[in-house]
Each structure stands twice: as C-alpha cells, then as structure tokens.
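Q: Could you write out the predicted structure for this multi-component system? I'm mainly interested in how the pieces pack against one another.
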Amino acid sequence: MAALGAAAACERKSESGATSTTGDIPVGMYASLTGDGASFGQSSREGTELALAEVNAAGGLLGGRKLALLMEDDQSKPEEASNAVTKLITQDKVVAVLGEVASRRSLAAAPIAQRYKVPMITPASTNERVTDVGDYIFRVCFIDPFQGEVLAKFAYNDLKARKVAVLKDISEDYSVGLTDSVVKHFTALGGQVLDPVSYSKGDPDFKAVLTKIRGQRPDVIFATGYYTEAAIIVRQARELGMMMPILGGDGWVGEPLKNGREALKNTFISNHYSGDNPDPLVQNFRKNYRAKFNQEPDSIAALAYDAVKVLADAITRAGSTDGVKLRDALATSDVPGVTGHLKMNAKRNVDKPAVIQEVTFVDGDVKFVYRATVSPN
Amino acid sequence: MDTFFQQVINGLSLGAIYALIALGYTMVYGVLRLINFAHGDVYMLGAFAGYYLANALNLDAHPSVLYAIGVTIGSMAICAVIGILIERLAYRPVRHHSRLTSLITAIGVSLLLEYGGQVVFGATPRFFPQMIRSETYSIGDVQITNQSLLIIVMSVVVMFALQFIVHRTRIGKAMRATSYNLSVAKLMGINTDFVIAFTFALGSALAAAGGVLVALAIPRIDPLMGLMTGLKAFVAAVLGGIGNIPGAMLGGFLIGLMETALSATAYSTYRDAVAFAVLILILLVRPAGILGTSVTEKV
Amino acid sequence: MGPLRKVVALVGTIAILAALNHVFESGLGDFQINPYYARIINLIGINITLAVSLNLINGLAGQFSIGHAGFMAVGGYTATFVTVYYGAAIAGLVGGTLNGGPGTFVVMAVSLSAGALAAALAGLLVGVPSLRLKGDYLAIVTLGFGEIIRVIILNIPAVGGATGFTDALPITTFFWIFGVAIATIAIVRNIARSTFGRALSAIRGDEIAAEAMGVRTTRYKVMAFVVSSALAGVAGGLSGQLFANPLNPQNLNFVKSIEIVVMIVLGGIGSITGAVVGAATLTVLPEALRGFDQQFPGLRMVLYALLLILFMIFRPQGLFGRRELGWTWLRLPGRTKIPVALSDSADARQHTGRRPTDRRSTLGGSDTDE
C-alpha cells in the first residue's frame, strides 16, 4: 500500500470557472492512430490539424489566443480511450474534447466529458446513443437511423430492390446499429429482408456467408461494416459470380477500400460529404487539404474539419472557454460546414442531408461519384 | 446442391489456409516442444516481404507467374533468415529455462512483431499486388478462383514434402532424434543447434509461402493479420495432434469446413467459437489430438 | 498473532480503506486527487486482484492457464447485469438507492457475489474436464474457453453486444477495489500456507509423485481453479462498474489474458508480492510511456514487448522469484513460524507440469534457471 501514497499525486481543488483567460487554448483529441481503426484516426487527425491551422492563421480566438491541440492515441481500444480522455480533461485541462470516430470508443469516453462538464464533439460517431450520454456531448454527423433510412430508400426507390440481404459485423456496434436501421426502414417500405448474416472483424474469408446469400437470390446486398472488410466482401462476392449492387454506409470510407478494385463496380455508399459539391467552402477545403497533405480528403477528414469549425465558432460566441458557457454556445451552433449546414438540434445532433455516392475504381484509385442527396424529413 | 458443393469448396479453401500455417506450427512444436506463438506473425512478415518484392518488380501492372514464384521464394528466404534470428536471439537463450519462460518469450516475440509491424508498415491494411491474373473457374454454379486452387494444392504438396524431409532424409532423422531427446541426440554427435535452426528456417519459410499465397487470394494485408488466423491454425495443429504433420493438415481442413458449415446456418455469429469448442471436445476424448499418439507417463 | 490482533488488523484495514476512499471520492479539505491518477490507481487495484488470483493457479499449482480474461468476463458481465437489471430493487429492499449510501453498498456486495459465483461455476465447468490435461494443452483449452465466452457475449444484446456493457452504473469505488485486492492477497496467501497450498505445491513439484503420496491432485487443482476464477470474476465486476470503463468483449480477449500472465511473470511467478508489483508496473508503464505517442504512435507497445523478451532472457524468474516481502499481518494466527514451502528453489523449474520425457530432454540445462 505504501506505493499508493507515493503515486497519488494530489493537487489543489480548482475553483469552478477558474479556467485561464490568457495563453493558448488547449483542445484535446483522442483518436485511433494505431490498431485496426488507424485509417479513421489518421484522417480525423489531418482534418483537425488543417482546421486548427486555419483558425490560428486567421488570428486565433478570443482576441488572438491560439488553439493548441493535445493528441492522444487510444490504440482502437475503448479502455484506452477512457484513460486518454481522463488524462486530457483532468491533467491537461483541455477546454473541449474532439473524437472519436468509432461509436464504441466515443461511448466509452463520453461519460467522462459529461462528468467533468467539458464539451465533447465527435466528428463521425453515428450511433444514436452517443449523444444520449448527456448534454455535453455533441456531434457533427448524421445518425445511423437516418443513414439506414437513406440506404433503404435508395435501394427500394432507385435500385428497385424488393429482396435484400444484409451482412453485418457482429463485433462492431456501428455495423449492428446500421443493420437494425436498414432492416427496419426497408421492411417499412414493403421490401423483404433476408435473415442478416454475420461475420466478425478480421475474418479472412466471407465466401461461406456469401454463398449462403447467393442461394437466396437477393436483389441487393447491404454490407454494413467498415472499410477493412468491405473491400474483401465485395471482391469475394464477385468471385462467386454475385454481380448485384452492394451498398454500404459511411464506414466504407477509408484508404483500404481500394483493395476491392474492379469488383467495386456497382457498389454505392451513403456519405457525409461529396468532393464534387461546387460550394466554394468545399472546394477551398479540398484545395487546402491537398496542399497540406498531398491527397484528397475523405469524409472523416471533412467531418473532423467541421468539428473544429463548430468548436471555434462556439468559443467565439461564448466569449469564454468556460465549460458551461461553451456548452450553451455549442447547443445553438448554426454554421455552414463542408459536410453541409451544421445546425445543432435539441438532441445535440445535426440535421443535414446525406449523399449517395457510387463507388468506382479509376486509374488505380477509388472515386466516389455523386448520385443523390437525401434530406431528413 | 450447387450451394452445398460451393460451400465444400469454400471450406477447403479456408481450411487450406489454416493447414499451411499449421504445418509450420506443428513442426516447430514437434522438435522443440515450444508453442511458437510468433509463427502467425512470421506469416504476416512473409506477406509483407512479398508485398515489397512484388511492388519493387511492379508485378501489379505486369502479372507474371514466373516472377510470382520468384517473389514467393524471395519472401521465403527472407523469413527463413528472420526465423533463424528469432531462434538465435530470443528462443535459444531461454531454451534451458522452464517451458513457461519459453512460452512467454514466444508471446513477447509475437507482440514485438505485431506492434513493430504497426510502426514500420503502418496499421492501415494494404493491397497485395496481383502477381497472378485472377481467374475464376466454374462448373455449373460452383466457382473457385485459381488462387484458392493454388492454396489447396500447395498445402497438400507442402505436407508431402515435409513428410519426406522428416522421414526420409538425414536432417529429418536428426530432427526426429532431437525431438525424441535433445541431450542424447547431442551426445550422439548431432549438432542440435543446427537442427533447431534448420527447423525454424523451414517453418518460417513455410509461413512466408503461406503468407504470400493467402495474400494473393485475399489481397488485404495488415500487421495484425497473423493474430486470429495464426491462433486458429495453431488450434488446427493441436486438433490434428500437434507434432504430427498429416494431422496438422487434417486439423486445418476440418476447422475450415466446420467454420464454413456453421456460417451456412443461422448461427454464423458463433463462427469464431467453433474452432475452440471442437478443440476442447476433441482434447477431452483424445488428449493428444486426432492423429497424435499419447505418451504414457513413466515415473 | 492472536485472534484479537487479527480483529484489530481487520478493523484497522477497513478503517484505513474507508478513510482513503473518502479522500478519493470527495477530497480532503482543499485537496483532491487528480482524477487521472485516481483512475490509474483504481486500475492497479483491479489488476492486482487479477494477477494475484491467476498466480494461485499458475504460480502455486503450476497449471498454465491463459484464459483468465474469460472468467473475468463471466463474473464482470454477471455482476453488471445484476446491478443494471435488479440493482434498484435490491437497493429498495434495504431502503436505499443506487446513488451511494447503504443501498449501493448492498447492491455492490450482491453483484460482486453473483459475479464470483458465476465465474466459480464457469471455473468448475472448465476445470473438471480440462485439468486432466497438462501443460500446453491446458493452456490451449483455457485460451479456447476465453474466446468462446467472448463470442457468446457478443451475441447477447441485453449486455450490450459489441458496444460493450455501457448501461453499467458507476458504483465501483476505491474502497471496494482495494478491499477486494487485499482480501484476494489474504486468501491466496492463506491458501499457500494451508494443507491445500502444500498439496498444490506438491503438484507443481511433481504431479505423479504427489499422486503417489496420496494427494488428490485433480480435486486440489479444480479447487484452486475455481477459487482463482471466482476472484477473477470479482475483478471483472469491479472493472465493469468502474466509471467510464464498460466491459467490452473486444477487450476481454486472449490478449487481455496474456497481459495478466505477463504481470505475474514479470513479478516472479509464484510470488504474491511479485504479482502485486507486476500488476502495478504494467498498469503504470503504458501510461507513463504515453509521451511517446505524440511523436511515434505505437512505439510504446514495441518497447513493452521488447522489455518482456529481455526480461525472459536475463531474469526469467521475474523481479521477485518466489520470494515475498513481509505480509505477516495477513497471516492466519499460529502459522507464522512455518517456513514457506514456496521458496524452495528446487520446484521452481518444474512448474509447467513437464512430463518425464521432457525433463530428460533438457537434462543438464534445467538447473540453470534459479
């Protein structure tokens, strides 16, 4: 027990509202820079860094104070996410927390932000329950029930599908949630959904489940998991002679999707952002991103960028970095973003349209081609 | 009926992957009584070695069977060297300690390769170049790709080759002697250090071949790819009777077929558990595995 | 140590824990512990319970289990389930609530007991058939069991499935974590010094000889396994109900089991002190290395792996070997004068249940590890 006393560094209780009013504004971020979600971590880091650089280059906030980013890796593990966010909030005293992309990790860490009354903005966690954690948790993306509806409608109305199969990743809550939503909405439209079949992350082979699906002859397949498996699922489906359209959610967006190659023909995703959007805001973002990172931004990077812009706007309007004031300002956010107009609703989500994109493989790279915009009712 | 035959083919293709890796596992265990946890990660390194070699030769744009064979052999050579290094630097210093120490060391090596891989290669999955043009053969509605076929054939070939090496060659005899009793083998003039190094080189080369072949069929490689696949391959080796070469192949095919069978039912979500469940059942009935011979304990 | 001193020690320990708990939860006057450090200290406490309980089966009995996370999962999910679905009712029975006070105390006690019971049952279920197997085979079966548990949990929506059990109520406190950790140390310590412990020691030394001497080996092994599992289950219950630390099937895989094994190996397998030190070190180390992540994400885990290998090569007996620091205040009365059977150097090398053939195969080398 002696070791305990030594490790327990004590500190003076901070008086409420005693956040500093000078110097850089510390902003925390936790992301999956390593582990199986590394692609998400990288994209969100880049989007965040670009937005921060822009805010700081424009003279900073609150009379010239710069935003300073404190970054923690969570190794794609929820436990690590909790440790990282506890450190950011209580040790580094950040005024707000940005992250995570995967809902599982956002859900693990959100109660900490809520307890210490430090606003948290998740760029891309689409699971409905994330913002239900409390009134300090915000997001700048749409939610899975909406995404499922968009995909179901597109399959039913545009692709004229009547019988669909769903492949879900049982080990990812994102996929489970999106699957539920797709099934619900497609059935509501009058379509038939075959029993969902599952796999789990890291499986090398999907032919067994695909063969099962093939025997049932669906018009369309939904693959609701992440990019890592999506590419292989599409490939193996084509190898089994299954040429029907395959649909996925925003989780498909990631560098490794290009492993699918020519097999990606006739696949579609719902997404937050389209690079084809002529809005100068979007085109400017693309230009700056390419200049800084030498590649095309994906939707995760775009959302991370928007999250910073929402935060910067809220800090300006709050006129302070105090947690309560910042929370109140965030709750009334109403700013244009590269992923659509960002107006916070009462559940701290944004109501914004989703785009349907056709996935194509051109010149050795994946291109998302804009197909349609679906607005929430 | 098409669906049934397709599932059998799927099961064999998957099983062949496990079998290829299990063969290396079983050989190292047979000689050293060491569960080489890092074997699955050497398989990963094999795939990455193949990736860099193939990209250096720009094989993605110009597929060529001849070069593909060259890349595979190159990757096998690289991994054989890595295997010898692992044995020399990590396992040999702890060889005379307890079995537990060796096992923990093996786990340490496995973690080192996985985390090191993430730092060096990056954690994001990569696309393995298509060194051989992908083709799909179909009979009716039953389809198989040339890559899957290659893996199945190779696993059988490798099994027979290993059987030959172990039972018909001089070094094989030395391996068996070392396996039976290391110190007596040494007393009989066998260079056991060489035999063990050779075993590791051979096992690692096999893992590398497996890595390249599997990456051809499933062109997604990442530093953690050896983790679950390696674990299941190991289960396959134990299932068949660890140390027993045909047993490893049998175990691999069995697990592949069972996982496929389960996927075809409504219980596909339990697929990851099936290998372990069957393993436990088999071990309770036949503690030495299906083809293993149990050792009677003497005092 | 007389019975009176034992009571004093018990009351004293509880009082100290309660006082520290107060400092942890509400601070002392103007001072309060930084929540980040508090969190790490709590995680150390949970890991101590896990490591010391695994030490009972791996260290004392010499049976190699690498499925501890599975038992932790069974206990943790059961305990959390009890609190989430029946907590309010249980608290109501004693007229309390789930927001602190006696109600929460009772709920915590009940949920942890339920977790312990469920994990013990699982331990019995796995132990009875599989403890007939030896060495590596037992290791594989326990590993397999851990994976099966993980897959089953993924398929139960009532406990959160892949999301993890995020409905859990944060009722774990410093008091409970370290109360359980101290109790675990006391239990394992006292087992080691009892007839039971001596039987385990004999089994570790040479199972066949032990059997020949009339030790009912299977019975003792299963007993050790069940106790070890139950304690792991309690640790799971504490972990899952700690604030913002929901149980997640992805985290309770064999990597977690191996982490616990590494803790006891680092400290010195068979040594309780070693398990405690190992648990503390391996909880703090990755956090202390966080600074590396800013520049080189992932590098800290490479260092961790490298450290493990070097440790095995240069100090395979771990930090403490089989030695202990003084824990005399936890001993049962009247047992203090008996020399510790565990510190025999002769048995340390044989603790994985080697077969006679294996022993022959490393002849001449096997004496070097002490």
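A: Regarding packing and overall arrangement: The first helix of chain C runs from residue 3 to 26.
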